Amino acid sequence: MNMHPVAKTFVSLLSACSHVGLVDQGVKIFNSMSDDHGIVPELSHYACMVDLYGRAGQLSKAEDLIRKMPMKPGSEIWCSLLASCWKYGETHLAKLAADKFTELAPNSSFGYVQMSKIYSSAGRFAEARLVKKKMRDSKVRREPGLSWVQVGMRVHEFCSDGQRHPERLAILSRLEILVGELKEIGYAPEINQVALYDTEMEHKEDQLLHHTEKMALVSAIMNEEKFPLGGNVVKIMKNLRICMDCHNFMKLASYHLQKEITVRDTNRFHHFKHGACSCNDYW
């Protein structure tokens, strides 16, 4: 284009590499900033690199990069590393990241929630309880999960406690039926996504059932005559990152229901079609 790249150009490039797993390409682009373009990497560029390594499971490289940064790591750095530790079950490094993140963002529940999940997944329920207690003692409240879907001329909101929608019981009843249908074609609830410590499996599955994007999808199915194209395209917005269980659920639902489902979470657009997602299960 015969144009000189600026700092923001590299944020976009590195972010793109991170989201598709192009680690080597991302490293080359990062190095070219100073080597070829005379641009000094900023905190945002280091955050992209930590995310790049973390998503790819190269946590030791992410940690090494953080230690070598010429500036103090911000909360976004530790947030990214902690999310990657959760994905790959890295408990020791996660504890460091959670402590650093909570120190920089004391009013955020993210560090507590992620560590609780990590400990629960590892069967370390006593430590998970301690994390939850520390969160309560600090008077930090967890951000509720919210999802929105437009039905006709109205936008329907679904909250993680399930209490905000007047058709809640009918939606949950239809959702139970859909879950049963999807189990017949391979759906297996990811109960390790639920930080409920040593509770019964049925209780954990019940918690997964109430995830807001699932309820939003069922609401759309129940009102598909009000959607364009006969309800074959469903668009859902979500205020948090979609979990692995809901991601698998949406893939199978798109195949079973023969619908295109788009979920816009905090990270990206997920376009589910014919049992696959546009992110290739990497987000």
From TrEMBL:
Sequence ranges assigned to domain DYW in this UniProt record: 186-283
Q: Which UniProt keywords apply?
A: Repeat, Signal
Record's signal peptide: 1-18
What domain of life? Eukaryota
Sorted alphabetically, which InterPro entries does this protein's record hold? DYW_dom (IPR032867), E_motif (IPR046848), PPR_At4g14850-like_plant (IPR046960), PPR_rpt (IPR002885), TPR-like_helical_dom_sf (IPR011990)
Respond yes or no to whether keyword Repeat is given for this record.
yes
Family, per the entry? Belongs to the PPR family. PCMP-H subfamily.
Q: What is this protein called?
A: DYW domain-containing protein
